[in-house]
Write a structure and sequence with these properties.
Chain A has seven helices and no strands. By secondary structure, chain A is mainly alpha-helical. Chain A has one domain. The radius of gyration of chain A is 22 Å and the shape is globular. Chain B has 74 residues and is mainly alpha-helical. In chain B, helix 1 packs antiparallel against helix 3. The longest helix of chain B has 36 residues. With 178 residues, chain C is an all-alpha fold. In chain C, 87% of the residues lie in helices and 0% in strands. Chain C contains three helices and no strands. Chain C starts with a helix and ends with a helix. Classes of the chains: A mainly alpha (252), B mainly alpha (74), C mainly alpha (178). Chains A and C meet through helix 2, helix 3, helix 4 and helix 5 of A and helix 1 and helix 2 of C. Chain B: It is a multi-pass membrane protein. Chain B: It is found in: Cell membrane; Membrane.
Chain lengths: 252, 74, 178
């Protein structure tokens, strides 16, 4: 549909907002197999490096009076630790490394994706669906292991009138299974939408008259995207905590 | 022809993002109103605010997704 | 939907039709690398970073507690020192007052003694002087009487009379009284 030739036929304006999300092999070309080194691999590796630099190298001096990097690492630690404790409860602290992993990966993937010409790994449903399914499966297993059959009480709203309960149970069940869908699509959708919008504005910059407006719009969108990058990581993490709380304390 | 219809459909689906915007505005506005009435309780409810915004926004993202599907995948 | 041929297009770097996100041919690839990434980050965080940060935070908490205790100690010491200083100051002031009073009293005593001695000397000298003045005065009266007697005797002799010494003396003494 949107090939180069096709685009140029449409009066000079070429929009390829989705091209930035293409998975390309870094070396040579050919089909993308499991182990091919692609831009996905590259940017995930950069995310790992960033996490290591911040969380390991940044804290390597173990200073009582922290350096700048160390205080950022401690800030992240305290932020997520408090979130887990406040939202999911004190008995969820065992899941803290897991939730911290999710948060660090998403936040770094989002921010690295904001670097021009980079590749945003979290804009792909393949990534976010796996992240959300990991949370979903973990939460469901934890719920059944900790509470046994009582976990099903999550779907049986005992405060509602008896006649309504079966209907509510169906609704609750559906909403429970929609969780990973919304959880994953929210993250990928937000990130993808922001990047696509920036790309569309960039396409408008080809017209000389519009280009100043377009540059201003890109700048504004970029600012919003910086905010969104953090908020989506935060929301993903806090929803994980909320789901975890449901699994640990399934009382309605 | 079908392609054009898909584009129209994509445009219609994009209305959904406006609806989500109304929802997000509602959540944030009501939070602000409540926070101004009782500022001391506001800090403890920011997490709830973000969860609410996230839920409202997710539905808008769904409509955006439908629009994208119609644009690029049909 | 994205088909295999379109995926091949994408792989060849041509602009991909449709959404790359829905190109299921590379999902396996992405999921594989995502899991690798997550496992690596998980182990880095849970084995190295998080225990280290927790230790640093605990250490800092300990240090802060210790420092606050030490600060309390130092504060108490400072208060003590201030009290001691104030006491020493008051003592020194009292001592100074005492010394000043003593010195004043001593000086006063010396002064008094000196004054008394001087007064006594002056009095003695005055008395002596008065005595000598009265002596001189007495001496003078006597001389005057003698001179008068001699003169009278001479005058009497010159007048041709015989001057009886006794009579002349009595007359002079009478005149002198008068």
């Amino acid at each position: 549909m949107a090939t180069e030739a096709h685009g140029s036929e449409e009066g000079g304006l070429v929009f390829h907002p989705m091209d930035q999300f293409i998975v390309k092999p870094l070396f040579g070309d050919g089909p993308v197999s499991f182990f091919t080194i692609t831009n996905v691999t590259l940017w995930m590796a950069v995310a790992i490096v960033a996490v290591v630099v911040l969380m390991v190298l940044g804290t390597s001096r173990r200073a009582v009076i922290p350096s700048r990097t160390q205080s950022v690492a401690e800030l992240a630690y305290g932020f997520i630790y408090k979130m887990v404790e406040d939202v999911a409860g004190k008995d969820a602290v065992g899941f803290f490394p897991y939730i911290m992993t999710l948060f660090m990966f998403i936040v770094f993937a989002n921010f690295l994706g904001l670097i021009p010409m980079s590749f945003t790994t979290t804009s792909h449903f393949a990534v976010t669906v796996v992240l959300a399914l990991l949370v979903f499966v973990t939460v469901t297993i934890v719920g059944f292991v900790k509470n046994g059959a009582k976990f099903l009480g999550l779907f049986w709203v005992s405060s509602a009138p008896l006649a309504l309960r079966p209907i509510l149970a169906v609704i609750e069940l559906i909403s429970y299974f929609v969780r990973p869908v919304s959880h994953s699509i929210r993250l990928a959708g937000n990130v993808m939408a922001g990047h696509a919008v920036i790309k569309v504005f960039a396409g408008f910059a080809a017209i000389a008259v519009v280009s100043p407006v377009s540059v201003v719009a890109i700048t504004a969108m970029y600012g919003l995207e910086v905010l969104v990058a953090f908020i989506q990581a935060y929301v993903f993490t806090i929803l994980t905590c909320v789901y975890l709380k449901d699994a640990l304390h399934p009382s309605h | 022809m079908e392609g054009q219809l898909a584009h129209i459909g994509a445009g219609l689906a994009a209305i959904g993002s406006g609806a989500a915007a109304i929802g997000v505005g509602n959540v944030a506005g009501n939070f602000l109103a409540g926070a101004l009435r009782n500022p001391s309780a506001a800090a403890s409810q920011t997490a709830t605010l973000f969860i609410g915004i996230a839920f409202a926004e997710a539905l808008g993202i769904f409509s955006f997704l439908v629009a994208l599907l119609l644009m690029f995948a049909v | 939907m994205a088909t295999e041929t379109q995926a091949a297009d994408a792989a060849h770097g041509a602009s991909a039709p449709g959404m790359p996100q829905l190109d299921f041919s590379n999902w396996g690839h992405q999921i594989f690398w995502l899991l690798v990434t997550l496992v690596v980050i998980y182990f880095v965080l849970s084995r190295i970073a998080l225990p280290r940060i927790a230790a640093v935070l605990a250490e800092r908490q300990g240090t802060i507690t210790n420092d606050i205790a030490a600060a309390e100690d130092l504060k108490a010491k400072a208060v003590e020192a201030e009290e001691a200083y104030n006491k020493a100051l008051a003592d020194a002031r009292a001592e100074a007052q005492r010394i000043i009073a003593e010195a004043k009293a001593e000086i006063q005593a010396d002064l008094d003694a000196a004054t008394a001695k001087a007064d006594a000397e002056i009095a003695a000298k005055t008395a002596e002087s008065e005595k000598r003045i009265s002596e001189i005065r007495a001496g003078a009266m006597q001389s005057v009487e003698e001179v008068a007697r001699d003169t009278a005797a001479e005058i009497v002799a010159a007048m041709g009379g015989k001057a009886d010494a006794k009579t002349v003396a009595a007359a002079v003494a009478e005149r002198m009284k008068g």
